[in-house]
């Protein structure tokens, strides 16, 4: 049933009913892939964001088979909230401990300008 809701891009009821992003410069969203798309819970969370306009936002998915349409869907949801989409990464279950996939996620974060231990001058 939940996969059908994900495929239809439904939103799940979540708490809190609004999420204030005024204190953040970058938002990163993550979700498993259900029926080729992100979950109803993350869709609801993005829809409930307050003061997110103009912020940078990226996304990643985890999956057992493939990312499906998760990247395109995340882009659409993020841009519909007037956030600047900075990229998408996916990690297959078989690649959880794959260093190359970890580097892809780090590259996405660096591209967005987030301070990291491996990004000189930031931490």
Structural notes for this entry:
This protein is α/β, with parallel strands linked by helices. It has one domain: Rossmann fold. It has 4 helices and 6 strands. It has a 4-stranded mixed sheet with strand order 3-2-5-6, sandwiched between helices. It has a two-stranded parallel sheet with strand order 1-4. It is globular. The chain starts with a helix and ends in an 11-residue tail after the last helix. The relative contact order is 0.17. The C terminus is likely disordered.
Strand content: 25-35%
Would you state the CATH class?
Alpha Beta
Task: Output the number of helix runs.
Answer: 4
Unreliable stretches:
118-123
Neighbour order of strands in the largest sheet? 3-2-5-6
Task: Return the domain count.
Answer: 1
CATH superfamily: Flavodoxin domain
Give the overall pLDDT as a whole number. 87
Overall body shape:
globular
Sum up the structure in keywords.
single chain, 123 residues, alpha/beta, Rossmann fold, four-stranded mixed beta sheet, 6 strands
Describe how the helices and strands are arranged.
Layout: H1 2-7, E1 19-20, E2 26-34, E3 37-38, H2 40-47, E4 49-50, E5 56-63, H3 70-80, E6 84-92, H4 99-112
